[in-house]
UniProtKB/TrEMBL annotation:
Full protein name: Putative ABC transporter substrate-binding protein
Record-linked InterPro entries: Peptide/Ni-bd, SBP_5, SBP_5_dom
UniProt keywords, alphabetically: Signal, Transport
GO cellular component labels: ATP-binding cassette (ABC) transporter complex; outer membrane-bounded periplasmic space
Organism, as annotated: uncultured spirochete
Family, as annotated: Belongs to the bacterial solute-binding protein 5 family.
Domain Solute-binding protein family residues, every copy: 78-432
Signal peptide: 1-26
Pfam families (UniProt xref): SBP_bac_5
Molecular-function GO term, any one: peptide transmembrane transporter activity
Length: 514
């Protein structure tokens, strides 16, 4: 009887050991570059045309397939990619000549050349095309193809942001042949290290290594990116070894992921800001047009409390829309806006009888935003706003519906500054002709942004960007919440895994541990 019991106990112990080490085995077993590399995305991509998409999930995919003329390095320096060298600017700063890399082909076999570059930027400029970031080509008056591998950009003004724009993921070069005959949103063609294989809408996309890539081919050969919007389920995939990489990880999941054998939690510097946008031209509640109403909302939001208690060391509270890793930042900007002052907010609500005024709070239903939305809803109710209606909406739907004039009063948003330049934050989000969501329609702000981008004098640019940032904050058009670090998780069998300051990853940089 004792022998039977001992055998039973031994089997139980073995079973427990296997259960405890199962995920470790899944993550740590010997891998090669030929193994399918599985990426878990907690937000859905909207398409594969880099000129018509501007959401983070789509950029994750497109950054593997397409390439820009330049790439911004980890230290903020510009690295020639499809360009051969940095641009040659004319003495007056109104033209820039770019020499292109030779011997590069698109995945459809057609050559990359100056005509392809001109074609791409003409599409970005064309209002009928519907570029996601038409402002990237706003300074380009015309282009001259000097030869197959030389192009000159003729500028309508000296553009201090041009190099940053040429490195932006939304100015990736597309194949003129492919663009003319197929929809790149569903069948992409680029010059990058990975080629498109297949995709199931709303589910996944499969890529494979471009063995004719002009540079060193990636170590990882095959990749599947799967949409798993429930973050807990995505983490479970890391536990079982069914996922090798999560490019975004929320702070509440960090301890769970750290406990998984064979999985590493990584961090990297970020230029991303999370903020609240307050729409003064809202058709939901006309009181949003009153500065004092917006200021009461701003004072009701405990941005520092949320950041320090929920996000801990993985984010820093901020008072400036332009962050410290972005050109145009000044330390004094931290004091331009409105600090958390619940008593002042309560007094304003009571004095103006705003207790029952409806405030529509629009929140993307991703792990980053849902908890923050609930926290701010509670803040507003504590300040006496008794009719705060929160709407959680799927990320891809938010991207579209947040552009409608009658959908919200305030909304949570984030901006991953690909270029590390303040103009590329302020202009696309708040300039009257460009802004699709916030619609502040402020001529003074527009003038400051224009003056800040139409010079190459860095001191003047900083002065104008700082003034535009100050106006934005003093008018309570936006409430900055925090500057985050990138947090991600990956199978420890891989190395050189990281995200750049915009949160984008490049699989061609990843390698397998020997």
């Amino acid at each position: 009887m004792k022998r039977t019991r001992s055998i039973f106990i031994a089997f139980v112990l073995i079973a427990l050991m296997l259960a405890a080490t199962g995920s470790a085995f899944a993550a740590n077993k010997k891998v090669t570059g030929d193994k399918m590399f599985n990426v878990a995305l907690t937000a859905a991509f909207t398409g594969f045309d880099p000129l018509r998409t501007n959401d983070q999930a789509s950029t994750y995919v497109n950054a593997q397939i397409y390439e820009t003329l330049y790439r911004i390095g980890p230290d903020g320096d510009y690295i020639p990619l499809l360009a051969e060298s940095l641009p040659d600017f004319s003495a007056d700063g109104k033209s820039a000549t770019v020499h292109l890399r030779k011997g590069v082909k698109f995945h459809d076999g057609t050559p990359f050349n100056a005509q392809a570059v001109k074609y791409t930027f003409m599409l970005i400029k064309d209002p009928k095309f519907g570029s996601a970031r038409a402002s990237l080509a706003a300074s380009i008056a015309s282009m001259d193809v000097l030869d197959d591998y030389t192009i000159r950009f003729n500028l309508s003004y000296p553009d201090g942001v041009l190099l940053a724009k040429l490195a932006h993921t939304n100015s990736a070069i597309v194949s003129p042949t492919a663009q003319a005959k197929q929809d790149l949103m569903i069948k992409p063609v680029g010059t990058g290290p990975y080629k498109f294989v297949s995709s199931i809408s709303g589910s996944n996309v499969v890529l494979t290594r471009n063995d004719q890539y002009w540079d060193k081919p990636p170590v990882i050969k095959n990749v599947t990116m799967t949409i798993i919007q429930d973050e807990s389920t995505a983490v479970a995939r890391m536990e079982t070894g069914e996922a090798d990489f999560m490019p975004e990880l929320s702070v509440p999941q960090i301890d769970r992921v750290k406990s998984i054998p064979g999985v590493t939690v990584g961090t990297s510097e970020s230029a991303r800001i999370t903020y609240v946008m307050l729409r003064p031209t809202s058709y939901v509640n006309p009181l949003m047009g009153k500065k004092e109403f917006r200021v009461a909302i701003a004072k009701a939001l405990d941005t520092r409390g949320y950041t320090e208690t929920i996000l801990e060391k993985y984010a820093s509270p901020t008072g400036s829309m332009i962050g410290p890793t972005v050109f145009g930042y000044t330390p004094q900007a931290e004091n331009y806006g409105y600090k958390y002052d619940p008593e002042a907010a309560k007094a304003a609500v009571k004095a103006n009888h705003w207790e029952n005024e409806k405030i529509k709070l629009f929140v993307p239903s991703t792990p980053v935003y849902t908890k923050l939305g609930e926290y701010f809803q509670a803040n507003l109710k504590d300040a006496g706003f008794n009719n705060v209606q929160i709407e959680m909406i799927d990320w891809s739907a938010w991207l579209t519906e947040s552009k409608a004039p009658n959908r919200f009063d305030i909304s949570l948003a984030g901006w991953a500054n690909v270029t590390r330049d303040g103009t590329e934050l302020l202009e696309p989000n708040w300039e009257s002709k460009v802004s699709a969501r916030t619609k502040i329609n402020n001529p003074e702000f527009d003038k400051l942004v224009y003056e800040g981008k139409t010079t190459t004098n860095r001191a003047v640019r900083i002065k104008k960007l700082d003034a535009a940032n100050k106006l934005l904050l003093e008018e309570a058009y936006a409430v900055p919440v925090y500057n985050a670090v990138n947090i991600f998780a990956y199978n420890s069998a891989y190395t050189d895994v990281t995200n750049d300051v915009s949160g984008t990853f490049y699989l061609c940089d990843f390698t397998v541990k020997q």
